[in-house]
Write a structure and sequence with these properties.
By secondary structure, the protein is α+β, with helices and mostly antiparallel strands. It has helices at 37-62, 72-83, 88-98, 104-118, 123-127, 150-159, 173-187, 283-289, 292-301, 323-329, 342-345, 368-377; strands at 4-16, 68-70, 132-143, 163-167, 205-217, 229-234, 240-257, 260-266, 272-279, 303-312, 314-321, 350-363, 388-391, 396-402, 408-414.
Amino acid sequence: MKVVMNLSATAVILLTMASCCSAEENLSLHEPQAITDTQGVQALVLGNNEFALDLYEKVCGMQESDNIFFSPYSISSALGMTWAGARGHTAVEMAEVLHFTLPVEATGRAFHSLTEALSSCDLSGAESGAPFTLAISNGLWVQDGFNLLDEYVTEVTRYYSAAVRNLDFINDSEGSRETINDWVAESTLNRILDLIPPGVLKDDTRVVLTNAVYFKASWRKPFDEHFTRDAPFFLADGSTIDVPMMNQTDFFNYVATEGCKAVEFDYAEGNASMLILLPDVDIEEFQQEFNADMLETIRRRLSFCNVSLSMPKFEFTRSMQLSQVLRTLGMESAFEVTADFSGFTGSPDLFISEVLHKAFVKVDEVGTEAAAATAVVMGLTAIPAQPVRMNIDSPFMFFILDRESGSIVFMGRVMDPSA
């Protein structure tokens, strides 16, 4: 009984390098400061969401007419573990692009607190039909015999709960790739396969950092399958296609503001929700003006309203090589042989060769378990004669958010529900 299944995985691959550069320490990023857990999480969420929208803008520019889906939280987590080993100009550049404003240890503590707050149930719950599962996993894969500093390993195991394993990239890069991909598949119930394609890992690979996020939840207010029917969806080029559209009339958080209509769907348990933005104008024009402040304004203005809703079912998988995107955002030195990741080993002998990301999303009607829970919630005594009409029949943006912290866990856009 699946309503939404969203999964993603990210890998950061680091290679050895020959360099005689000295490590220029950026003290401000490594000095301890008195920061409470609440302040740390708030600063991290704000920065992660800014990075999410920066990344979305760049990806949209590279894929003008395609569906997009990714987990900014997964990407920020994997790069956060990498940044913990960066020093000097490399650390400063990464912090600016990722919008990390706290020292390294405080950032790690904030990731730990936020991940604990977001996580609910484990993969066994999803397999047994639990109504809400959000499982986050991190991995640190190191060449056998390649020594990392104890301080770095302590950092990523304490704050990112990273599982540390040795592999033999030098003599068995293909076997190492299969091992990592198997871990990703297991961490996402086989929804993300072959995250690292053949040929990416080489005999000079020394470290791979991975993050996997698995999310499965039932709507609090389910759609009845009997009301799903084919209807036209208007593509960006003006043409139309017929797609299965789910329909229901009920009370949702809704607002028409900031050049769009917005509706929020709660999940049956947990603090997560899906927010859909249907632009009043062409989605490309809307995206050019969209930013984090607009997102927060829209969320603040949502109000409980009776909505006659129609929205498409959709399912797709997307892979992204993020190295060039991150470079265009300003993270350049991390990919050069002059990079300073001396926090890993004590010497600036590593640089990033690839950042890979893959995500899967499926949205459909609710199953029986969710329907039973939602029936109690929908026991309304009065329904207005003319509900607000929201027909999501043209390209739209969507977010999966933690309502309490405001953290964007997943985001994307649907240009063609049938793709």
